[in-house]
Amino acid sequence: MSTATATPSSTATTAAVPGDARITLRGHLRHTGALVRRNLLWIRQDPESMFDALLMPVVFTLLFVYVFGGSIGQALGGGQDQYVQYVIPGMVAMMSMTLSQGVGTGFSEDFNKGVMDRFRSLPIGRGSVLFAKITVELGRMLFATAVLMIVAVLVGFDITSWPGLFATVGLSALFASSIMWVFLTLGVVLKNAQSVQAMGFLVLFPLQFGSSIFAPTQSMPGWLQHFTDYNPLSTLADAARGLMIGGPVAHDLWVTVGWSVVITAVMAPVAIHKFRTKN
Amino acid sequence: MTRIDNKPSGAGSAVTVRGLVKHYGETKALDGVDLDVREGTVMGVLGPNGAGKTTLVRILSTLITPDAGQATVAGYDVVRQPRQLRRVIGLTGQYASVDEKIPGWENLYMIGRLLDLSRKDARARADELLERFSLTEAARRPVSTYSGGMRRRLDLAASMIGHPAVLYLDEPTTGLDPRTRNEVWDEVKRMVGEGVTVLLTTQYMEEAEQLAHELTVVDRGKVIAGGGIDELKAKVGGRTLRIKPADPVQLRPLAGWLDELGITGLASTTVDAEGGAVLVPILSDEQLTAVVGAITARGVTLASITTELPSLDEVFLSLTGHRAGAPQDARPADDRQEVAV
Q1: How many Å separate Cα B177 from the centre of its chain?
Q2: Where are the transmembrane segments (chain B) (predicted)?
């Protein structure tokens, strides 16, 4: 009988737990790391899941530069070349938004499987599962941004300031991570991936097109301009423009940072709470 | 109703549940459940779909919180000490709770890391458990390529990583073919042999008989019977004779006549009209012989006669006088039970 040996070992595990069993910062990092690894393995298993991050920057850039580039460029007082300088920083902003949506759809799929029950029955910080998801999605976003910049240079974009480019990427990542909390909440609350996608589309579409990403806002009606002035995607795009090709930055930068902080402060606790209490 | 503060190592109750209630709107998933699982034993929770078995397991795994009542596992309260409790439990769900997109080894390694094993220990533990559950050859393949039985075995392995004191098996063989079911049973028996306390939920009397030391029968959120397997088997008649007359017209007369004969075990003879058979619970081979002898003497021609373990339905029929989950006639019986508890 191995009873005699097994019982003490299970007792020992129990006894090793400190009284309140709080999770240390190192513990949180370890748990998040283990879950990030899982998500990276998914990508290795299914490389097609990177297609959107690879193709979206290519398709959108070519589409906007060659379809709208000429006419909007003219309005800007130049031509297609001028539009390239205008639209690429906007694209960086858009990419961060569009890809953050994936965090919600993926999460909702995950939730319909038993593995989420296992995670929630393990002694880990419940935020870890969400942090891991955001980390991986930010990685995808950086990849997409790199692809975007390669295409941008190929269609004639002139990187005037490398520090400005990096600052832009950092600002986009900050804003994207805040938006991801919104999509994670949707991913937990809504029943399936399709609903998350549909809701995401409803939120994203007006924000993207009611902004200065693709075209200057001067020609829009007054009420819409008020909207675009405070639309975080506009301010992110304008800040990106300022940082990458020069121009005023401060106002747009702070509005974007403000939005990111406020959205995270509100939505991160909501997402974690919903995750914690999901039946 | 003892308040327990004893150490998990102390011999006694590993799981204690008192008056547990969980409602979903109008549905009473759990309606005042009491349960004690002694350390080192297997408690089978037997009940039909919707009886509240999974709700019970989810509360005991801290996945959901009860509306009322209390429950402790290894001395830890499910509501007040969820973090400590999660360290001492293992959970194997109704649906394999492993990540299908990644290899088996990666699943176990990940859970090892989530349980705070060092990289080295997590690796060693993953190797060890894959070996033990005969999955070494499939270690590097994505779980989506596994057979149903392999998945359950991986699921069991995953539950064992943290050396749990209490293991929950929520319908571990639902949806498996008989051969695979046996495989899983063997694994469970081995784990029990090593001293793990198990709370097993199942819809199958046979599974309960194979694995459990004690049984709790639940229906619509309430405990309707409990005790040792033999006790319950005696109550429901141990085995059941399924007797099919060649001529269906003889079904009812045969049943009435066998009933009058009074050979049966503690439960009474019933008729399965759809199956065209009379069901006679018996306790011994002597009773089997007596029944067959009596039928022969009467000159009734039989199409077939088989013995079977009581099905869940028959257990319910014998214990409560109604079929499992039947909505109408059951209420008074349940209420009486509630008063008795």
Answers
A1: 17
A2: none
Distance from CA of B244 to the nearest CA of A (A): 43
C-alpha separations of B215 from B37, B164, B283, B335 in Å = 10, 21, 19, 21
Residues A123, B86: C-beta atoms closer than 8 Å: yes
ipTM surpassing 0.85, yes or no? no
Task: Determine contact: A24 vs chain B, CB below 8 A.
Answer: no
Q: For residues B7 and B75, is the Cβ–Cβ distance under 8 A?
A: yes
Say if domain B239-308 classifies as CATH 3.30.70.920: yes
- A14 vs B87: CB contact, 8 Å cut-off? yes
Name the pTM for this structure: 0.78
Q: What are the tokens at B43? A: 């408690």
CB B308 within 8 A of CB B238: no
Q: Residue A46 is nearest to which of B74, B89, B101, comparing CB atoms?
A: B101
Nearest CB partner across the interface for A41, out of B106, B163, B195: B106
Distance of alpha carbon B98 from alpha carbon A117, whole angstroms:
10
> pLDDT of B179-238, one tens digit each?
888 888 998 898 888 889 999 999 888 888 889 999 999 988 999 888 887 777 666 656
**Three-state secondary structure along B130-193?**
HHHCCCHHHCCCEHHHCCHHHHHHHHHHHHHCCCCCEEEEECCCCCCCHHHHHHHHHHHHHHHH
Domain made up of B13-227: CATH architecture: 3-Layer(aba) Sandwich (3.40)
